[in-house]
Amino acid sequence: MSISLNNLDETKATVVSTINIAAAIKNAREAVGYSIDDLAVTCGLVVSEIQDVESGADADPAKLKRIAAALQLPITELLPE
Asked: Which residue numbers delimit the HTH cro/C1-type domain (predicted)?
């Protein structure tokens, strides 16, 4: 089966706002007292990658998992309900 616009059930599709994710990550980072530099070192990303995630420009799932692990949070804590 292939996915096309013709067989995509829009009622089941979920869009996750990168702005909400960005805000959740920034809030979680600040809550534990990390600077962007601290978080970058802890999760193995570079500062610009953290900045892109926190600005909503990047929501790469692999990066989000690394950030969640560095903040000792389940990934679901960073995603909107």
From this structure: 25-78
One-letter identity of residue 13 = A
Report how far residue 46's alpha carbon sits from residue 6's, in angstroms, rounded to the nearest whole number. 40
CA distances from 16 to 21, 22, 32, 67 (A): 8, 11, 24, 17
DSSP letters, 3-23, are --TTT--TTT-----HHHHHH
**pLDDT tens digits, one per residue of 12-25:** 445 557 888 999 99
CB atoms under 10 Å from CB of 16, counted, come to 11
User: In 10 A of CB 73, how many CB atoms?
Assistant: 16
pLDDT by residue (tens digit) across 56-77? 999 899 999 999 999 999 988 8
